[in-house]
Amino acid sequence: HADALVALHADSDSEDKRGFHLIYSPEMHGGDATQAASVTLATSVSDALQRSPLPPANYKGTPELPIDPRTNIAALNELATAPGILVEVGNLNNPDDWTLLTRPRTREALAQGIADGLTAYLGQS
Predict the structure, then answer these.
(1) Domain segments of the chain: what residues?
(2) Is 111 helix (H, G, I), strand (E, B) or coil?
(3) Is the Cβ–Cβ distance between 83 and 40 less than 8 Å?
(4) What is the pLDDT, as a whole number, of residue 79?
(5) Which of 26, 46, 47, 58 has a 20 to 30 A CA-CA distance from 6?
């Protein structure tokens, strides 16, 4: 009976790619309503993460809205009643992202951004 699912990951793409991005599934079992709620959740978390030390991804979505729809994330596809997103907090293969992610202040800022985005989303729904 969760209100939302937020999965945390760090990407491992090529080293020239960096930044955070969010993933939702356009093929959720919950259909259009769950997918739309997931995009709203992703947007809310993305907005809050814009204040973190990590930049928005330069390889997924846009700098204003780094959201990536993907159908190959089973945990998101299976959601029927709650919205869900996967947050890629940065790219471990990018030296700048790696350095930032090793710093406690960065991790705290990311955690706060995710919490703030989730809180804002829950206040809207």
Answers:
(1) 5-124
(2) helix
(3) yes
(4) 84
(5) 58
Could you report how far apart the first and last alpha carbons of the chain are, in Å?
15
Residue 21 · residue 50 · CB < 8 Å: no
Q: Which fold has domain 5-124?
A: Aminopeptidase (3.40.630)
Active site residue 88: yes
Q: How far apart are CA 88 and CA 38, in angstroms?
A: 15
Q: What are the φ and ψ backbone dihedral angles of 119, each rounded to 5 degrees?
A: -60, -45
Q: What is the pLDDT of residue 26?
A: 93
Q: What is the mean pLDDT of each run of 10 residues along the chain (125 residues)?
A: 94 97 94 94 97 96 93 88 95 98 97 97 87
For residue 7, the surrounding DSSP H or E stretch is: strand 5-11
Q: Catalytic pick from 64, 78, 88, 108?
A: 88
- The DSSP-derived string for 42-87 is HHHHHHHHTTSSSPBPSSSS-SS--EEE-S--HHHHT-SSS-EEEE
